[in-house]
UniProtKB/TrEMBL annotation:
UniProt cross-references to Gene3D superfamilies, sorted A to Z: Spore Coat Polysaccharide Biosynthesis Protein SpsA, Chain A (3.90.550.10)
Coiled coil: none
Native organism taxonomy: Bacteria, Bacillati, Actinomycetota, Actinomycetes, Micrococcales
Protein name listed in UniProt: NTP transferase domain-containing protein
MobA-like NTP transferase domain span: 16-168
Keyword Isomerase: no
A Pfam family reported for this protein in Swiss-Prot or TrEMBL: NTP_transf_3
GO function terms (MF aspect): transferase activity
Keywords in alphabetical order: Transferase
InterPro entries xref list: MobA-like_NTP_Trfase, Nucleotide-diphossugar_trans
Length: 233
């Protein structure tokens, strides 16, 4: 992953946020980020999909530090406060870390911010579609944010390319006693304008259960993680 915020391949400058800090309750607590698809952790899959970003931040627990380092790309590892306080809080924590990094380096933030959940084994196809759409709207002065639209017609806010300015405004506009804690992405994005981008079938398929894992050939391949329960194979 390149440092700085200059244009990535194809002229689209962006930074990336990857969410990897959920409880994985329907997987018995097994971290989604450390599940494996074709011999790579799902975190590595997401980082590779975002490899054109000028900077990247992963929102997740310290236990992911080895996996982040193994991915071989310069990445910040941050944690939302309090832990497990939801995707909106995680996005804000990662975004704040990227802002600080750019300020320290004396550079502006890029036009776009890619936001991905870490549990989508085929997400690279969706990212390619989002970046292609971003390139096609560069002629407009204020292109909207871009959300993946899957084959069922469902919008995917955690597989999206946001206008950085719009995301910053959304994070800064929340005024509630608990801040962003347990705030839904829908509420965080209430004032964000976006356009849906149809992405390839199954490119945003996510792993919530062991049944999902079996369907998409995702396995618990990291040492110390228990095998998939036999009753759910």
């Amino acid at each position: 992953m390149r440092s700085g915020t200059g244009p990535a391949a194809g002229g689209t400058a962006y930074q990336a946020i990857i969410l990897a800090g959920g409880r994985s309750s329907r997987l018995g607590g097994t971290p989604k980020a450390l599940l494996e698809s074709s011999g790579r952790t799902l975190l590595a899959v997401a980082l590779e999909a975002a490899s054109g970003a000028g900077a990247c931040a992963v929102a997740g627990p310290p236990e992911l530090s080895a996996a982040v380092e193994a991915a071989g790309v310069p990445t910040l590892l941050v944690r939302e406060e309090p832990p497990f306080s939801g995707p909106a809080a995680a996005v804000a924590a990662a975004w704040s870390a990227l802002v600080l990094k750019d300020k320290e380096a004396g550079r502006p933030q890029p036009e776009w911010t890619l936001v991905l959940a870490c549990d989508m084994p085929f997400i690279a196809q969706a990212v390619a579609a989002l970046l292609a759409e971003a390139r096609s709207v560069q002629i407009h002065p204020l292109p909207p944010s871009l959300l993946s639209l899957d084959e069922t017609g469902r919008e995917q806010p955690l597989a999206a390319l946001y206008r950085t300015e719009a995301l910053a405004s959304a994070v800064g506009s929340i005024d509630r006693p608990d801040g962003l804690e347990n705030l839904s992405m829908k509420r965080l994005l209430a004032r964000v304008q976006w356009r849906n981008v149809a992405v390839p079938p199954n490119s945003t398929a996510d792993i919530d259960t062991w049944e999902d894992a079996g369907r998409w050939s995702v396995k618990p391949g990291i040492a110390g993680i228990p095998d998939v329960p036999a009753t759910e194979n």
